[in-house]
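Researcher: We are triaging several targets before committing to wet-lab work. For this one, the compound of interest is NAP. I'm pasting the protein sequence and the ligand SMILES. What I need is the predicted three-dimensional arrangement of the protein with the ligand bound, expressed as C-alpha cells, so it can go straight into our comparison scripts without reformatting.
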Amino acid sequence: MGKAIARRFLKKGYEVLGWNRTRKKAEELVTEGLIILDSPAAIGEQADVIFLAVADSPAVEAVLFSENGLLKSLKEGTIVINISTIMPGDAIRFHKAIKEHGAYYIDCPVLGSPRDIEQGKLIILFGGDQNLLSKVRSLLEDLGEKIFYMGDVGKASAMKLIFNMVSPSLVILLGEAINMGIKAGLDVDKVVEVLSEGPLRSAIERYHHKIMNPNPPVTFTLRLMVKDLEYANRFAYELGMPLFIPATAKNIYSIALANGLGDEYHARVYKVLKRISGLE
Ligand SMILES: NC(=O)c1ccc[n+]([C@@H]2O[C@H](COP(=O)([O-])OP(=O)(O)OC[C@H]3O[C@@H](n4cnc5c(N)ncnc54)[C@H](OP(=O)(O)O)[C@@H]3O)[C@@H](O)[C@H]2O)c1
C-alpha cells in the first residue's frame, strides 16, 4: 500500500520522500523519483505531511517510538496520516503522542487495494479534527474517490475493523456453499450462477474467481486478514459484546496461516475449507 501511495503521488508531481524497513522494496521507485531516506526520523525532519502504511499496531509503534523513530524529529504542525489497519485504542494513543509534539494525527484507514490507489479509487475513512480534513482533502482525493468523515480519532479504525470482519466471513460462507455443491455432485459453474441470484451476489462476483483460482494476485495477504480478524475479536471484547461468525472465520484463517498460506491472497483460505470437507 505504501508503494502504491508513493507511486500515485509521484505521478501527481509531488516531491516524495520514503522510508521502508526493508529498503530494497522501496528502491524500485527510485527511477520514478522517490527519494529514500534512512529512518522515520529523517522523514520527520523534512516532510510536512507523512503517510504511514505498515502492517499492524506494533509496526506503527516501531515507526513512531523506536530509536530513530518519527517522534525523534517530528516538527510542529506536521500532519501524520495513518492508513494502516490498527486497534482503535492504539489510534487514540498514537494521536496523543503526536499531539504532544505539536503535530497532528489522522486516523485514516482505507478500503481498497494497491490497484485502487493507483487508479485513485480508494474509499477513505477519516477520524480526527474536521478542520484537518479541509487541509488534506485535496491530497486524499488524489488517492480516493470517497471520503467518509467518521468522527474523532479511533472511530475510523473502529469502522475499518467492522468492514474487514465481513468480507472474510463471506469468503468462508461462499467456500462452504461451493463445497456443498461439489459434494452434492452439482456443476460448480451452475452453483455459482444460481447463488448469484441471491443476496450474496456482490460477494460472489467479487470473490468466486479468486476462491477457485490457485494463484490469484496477492493484493491483500492472508496474514493481514488474520490480524484484522484478531483485532475485530479483541475490539468486541473491549466493547463487552460477543462475536460469533468473525470468531469462527478467524480460527479458519488461522489454520490456513499455520499451514503456510500467510503470504497468499486471503481468499486462498478456501484451500483449508476444501481439505476439511474431504475434497482435497
Ligand atoms: N493490501 C490491501 O489491500 C490493504 C487494504 C486496506 C488496508 N490495508 C492495510 O494497510 C497496511 C499495509 O498493508 P500492505 O498490504 O501494504 O501490507 P504489506 O505489503 O504486508 O506491507 C507491510 C509493511 O509494513 C512494514 N512493517 C511490518 N512490520 C514492521 C515493523 N515492525 N517496523 C516497520 N515496518 C514494519 C513492512 O516492512 P518490510 O517491507 O520491511 O517487511 C511493509 O512495508 C496494513 O495495516 C493493512 O491491513 C491493506
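Researcher: Any quick observations?
Model: The CA atoms of residues 33 and 125 lie 28 Å apart.
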